[in-house]
Specification:
By secondary structure, the chain is mainly alpha-helical. Helices cover 80% and strands 0% of the residues.
């Protein structure tokens, strides 16, 4: 495949149709494999928060330990914009492929290290300090992972099919979350609560090491994205991508940030925090909840390409609007249904409240990629998405837990999700429809 196409062709249309589809499939697989690592780690940490809290923040107050471990969880999100700026700049100057290999290795190694950490019982204050440092490193590499993967797929997909192929990036999100729930569930079943508390919590973190080896092998086999190859052939890379993004694409930065905020609230409250809601607050059995979340995540993964393809046909705005409206309408009544202390009803409610997730996740990432030109796409996406992720993902589990503690109202996380969905809907009002446009 030539890296210098005929000048008359748009960037996204250069390869022959058959070659383009093969390239897009490889890109989609590589994106999903790496993104699964990122969300596996974040999922494991979220699912085991109530278990590992006393390990690193011992004390008589279980709620305080949980808040402390969630604060460390949120700290990783503070590093995501930094990672997005640094890795995005390298991705826009050197290429997508090499940086995506760095991010997946960095995320996987850091996750494995959590499983090797000493606890506060044996190491005292150094234990939570080391955990915090590792979480910051994870956040740095995560800042360039999912957005870089989404940019890579968008630049490798044929025009008019970016929604379909782009949906496989969040398929990795769902698979990573499902693997996290499955590994946590199997560990708790095989080891039991006592052994899980003593040392079994380490296993899910250590499992990231073989996963990163497989993901790295997949990413090593792919070529540089089509659009970036063409850009390199005819243009000099930007010297200061972030400055250019802020100066020339400020409106896109704002819209993507607000949409990413709503998307992240949907994932971290609508899926990951529901684990804490069901187990810590409603007292459902942890192992059973792990299986529910694993099933929900896998089910949602199968729906993502469907909604991605639908957005290619009817447009990104309409499909995204349907997803955010679904969050706003469904979350509160489904949380009430979960509180009936019936595991069957809780399972049904969890399936329903998760229905908007594949819509928003699958259509969001290709939409973000289409808001920035190839010249600064990696930086623009990484910076904007990660700013939205700080508030929508890093802070919300902590805030939700704190609000429940302050007010006694178990529905507070649902109100946060409704608010996030409304913010995203407002951002859609001025969004340009890009489903059928060629990438610039």
């Amino acid at each position: 495949m030539s890296s210098a196409p005929a000048p008359a062709l748009p960037l996204a249309d250069a390869p022959a149709v058959s070659d383009a589809k093969i390239t897009a499939r490889k890109a989609a697989l590589a994106a999903a494999a790496g993104t699964a690592i990122e969300y596996y780690e974040f999922g494991v940490y979220g699912y085991l928060a109530s278990t590992i809290g006393p390990m690193f923040f011992p004390g008589d107050n279980a709620a305080a330990s949980l808040l402390a471990i969630l604060a460390v969880f949120g700290s990783a999100f503070l590093m995501r914009p930094v990672g997005g700026i640094v890795l995005g700049r390298l991705g826009d100057r050197l290429g997508r492929r090499a940086i995506l290999l760095v991010t997946v290795i960095g995320m996987g190694v850091a996750t494995g290290l959590v499983g090797l950490l000493p606890t506060a019982t044996s190491a005292g204050l150094i234990a939570p300090v080391l955990l915090l440092l590792i979480r910051l490193a994870q956040g740095f590499f995560a800042g360039g992972e999912v957005t870089g993967a989404a940019a890579y797929v968008a630049e490798s997909a044929p025009r008019g099919q970016r929604g379909f192929y782009g949906a496989f990036t969040p398929v990795g999100v769902a698979i990573g979350g499902a693997l996290a729930a499955t590994v946590c569930g199997l560990s708790s079943v095989i080891l039991g609560a006592e052994q899980m508390q003593a040392w079994g919590w380490r296993i899910p973190f250590l499992m990231a090491i073989p996963m990163v080896i497989v993901s790295s092998m997949v990413r090593r086999r792919v070529e540089e994205s089509v659009s970036f190859q063409q850009f390199q052939a005819h243009h000099e890379p930007p010297k200061a991508p972030l400055s250019e993004v802020m100066r020339e694409h400020g409106s896109s930065v704002l819209r993507v940030t607000l949409l990413a905020f709503g998307q992240n609230v949907g994932y971290w409250v609508g899926l990951v925090f529901m684990n804490l809601y069901l187990t810590t607050h409603l007292k459902y059995d942890k192992t059973t909840v792990y299986w529910i979340l694993a099933f929900v995540s896998i089910s949602m993964a199968f729906l993502m390409p469907v909604f991605g393809a639908l957005s290619d046909r009817v447009g990104r705005r309409k499909v995204l609007a349907a997803g955010f409206i679904g969050y706003a309408v469904l979350v509160l009544p489904m949380m009430v249904l979960m509180d009936r202390h019936n595991i069957g009803l809780a399972f049904l409610a969890m399936m329903v409240v998760a229905l908007p997730l594949p819509i928003v996740q699958s259509v969001g990432y290709p939409t973000y990629a289409e808001q920035f030109p190839t010249r600064v796409r990696y930086t623009g996406m990484a910076f904007s998405f990660n700013i939205g992720a700080i508030v929508g993902g890093g802070i919300t589990p902590y805030v939700a837990t704190a609000l429940i503690g302050q007010t006694g109202n178990l529905l507070m996380p649902g109100f946060l999700l409704v608010g996030g969905a409304l913010v995203a809907l407002m951002a859609l009002v001025g969004l340009r429809e890009t489903a059928q446009e060629a990438l610039q």
